């Protein structure tokens, strides 16, 4: 149960004045939290931090204001000059002066009456905006702020700038944030007094006020003590949660499995390839976990195409030898089906009974599967989160494998836990997460890494080209198809709307169909499961040779003989995503290529991303570069992307904070494992605030 003191912060943002459903929808696009379908709450809004500030403190007077500078001026209004009636190309001008000279405030398509009320002639005003010298005359087009002299205090001299989205005015967002700040209740301190003093950290609510209303530009930066304080809170909550989850998973020791090696040997024979050295190593590490009394809690980390699935299958063989069931959970239905298509036949050859369970299995099939799981007849099941449903009961689940791809979260792991008696747990991730991130996202889980690609893989040739050369590109793809090759064509990602994504993909599909006819297929997220499967199957089996897709194919799709991937509007994708997408090719022994089609002009960050993609295929390197580039702050208009899984902490800046938070969490739990002390109780509040309710539930469950 959440303590009632937190209610004001957990109310939906629609409880704030000026925030109706429509505004709420817009705000939800910019809050950093993963809302997972729920409405944003007041706390989410508080954690939406400015990505930069505008410094309006420069007050040189009109005559000394430099071209292009943001200045604040104290003006007396002299006269209004409306445009000739009906002529909208001429602006509305308001003339004003100070001791140093005269300035024109210029408004296009302005409401004259409104301006007259805003700036009555003779009134003393404060105005702030960008100075322009136009034909040698001082001018300010659409000042950002206009206030009467007596209201000058309302004009923010250090103005925070928030991530924006079309349709959401910064005024509306700021008003909502200010109300949210007013709702912070008096909360007890949860951080250790020593830590606060040593690092000069402000209190939680003071930190939020400072970040949203900085007195100095540096106060709103990630390096500031205020930001550090919140990063500390978030990381500390994360570390406590991880430790508790781990404790509960480890509480009873695991159950030892007696492996015979028999089924594993049969799988090896059935596999069409030899395992690589690092696959062998991972299999050995997992085997030794399965054999031991301790419960396995292992992360299998491998770059795109490194062959994690085969390792998972070997682990499942081990569980079967010990007479236990195993389950592999995939994040999407496409992936579950694909895993089943590769793993199923191999497992069956080795004599295992297998099944699949997703939202789509219904009626008799589903009933049979459920019965087979409950009786223990089915030894190996592949599925989606449908595996968590209440009706799903295992006879004896010994091994749960979660293919997490790049979604972080302990929720799935906890849910799988509940399905068995201390099942061993393997989490697979395709994202080459840097070491620091492994620590934060996964705590002290054991890690196995696939460090090499299967033998015979050839490097992927990556090129970039501007979109005015698409015609030429289509010709080249045609040649390649005639030559028997298969290609993906990934369509632009449009941030704001899935609908737009779709139209773009559909349009491209139609235009390519005109050239290549039935050889072109289409797959996108809005398609029905069956149609998606069918599109994937036709491409896999070569009935289509060119597959137009939205990013639904980003994770895990495996069509080893596809050799070309075209990514349209590559400038809109992040590095990690580009790397994942590119990983769809180069999965067989044939040479592959990746064509990054961009629409210029490119910003600095986008340019750098494309260069990195051309220069390296090393996922670890790309992940590190990604963190660095993200650290440099994204452009206005996109969601401010911090470290994945975190709202506030940024590991490029807050590494040291992480280390301290980690030690602090350990120390606290060693003294107060149930969080019962006064400080422990405060820490419970913190866990709620940062979305770690599952940890509190564990405590309550004892
Ligand atoms: N040792 C090996 N030798 C040759 N091919 C292999 C080997 N291991 C796996 N493969 C093949 O490599 C391809 C990629 O394997 P898999 O799908 O397991 O990759 P992955 O690690 O899950 O990558 P992603 O995260 O991109 O899905 C598959 O077609 C698989 O059959």
TrEMBL record:
SMART domains associated with the record: DEXDc (SM00487), HELICc (SM00490)
Residue span, Helicase ATP-binding domain: 289-450
Catalytic reactions of this protein: ATP + H2O = ADP + phosphate + H(+); Couples ATP hydrolysis with the unwinding of duplex DNA by translocating in the 3'-5' direction
Source organism, top-level taxon: Bacteria
Alphabetized InterPro entries for the sequence: ATP-dep_DNA_helicase_RecG, DEAD/DEAH_box_helicase_dom, Helicase_ATP-bd, Helicase_C-like, NA-bd_OB-fold, P-loop_NTPase, RecG/Mfd, RecG_dom3_C
Cited Gene3D superfamilies: Nucleic acid-binding proteins, P-loop containing nucleotide triphosphate hydrolases
Isomerase keyword on record: yes
Domain spans labelled Helicase C-terminal: 469-628
Gene Ontology MF annotations: DNA helicase activity; hydrolase activity
Pfam family name, one: DEAD
Keywords from the named record: ATP-binding, DNA damage, DNA recombination, DNA repair, DNA-binding, Helicase, Hydrolase, Isomerase, Nucleotide-binding
EC number(s) per entry: 5.6.2.4
Alphabetized CDD domains for the sequence: DEXHc_RecG, RecG_wedge_OBF
Biological function: Plays a critical role in recombination and DNA repair. Helps process Holliday junction intermediates to mature products by catalyzing branch migration. Has replication fork regression activity, unwinds stalled or blocked replication forks to make a HJ that can be resolved. Has a DNA unwinding activity characteristic of a DNA helicase with 3'-5' polarity.
Sequence similarity: Belongs to the helicase family. RecG subfamily.
Entries under PANTHER family matching the protein: ATP-DEPENDENT DNA HELICASE HOMOLOG RECG, CHLOROPLASTIC (PTHR47964:SF1)
Name of the protein: ATP-dependent DNA helicase RecG
Source species of the chain: Mesorhizobium liriopis
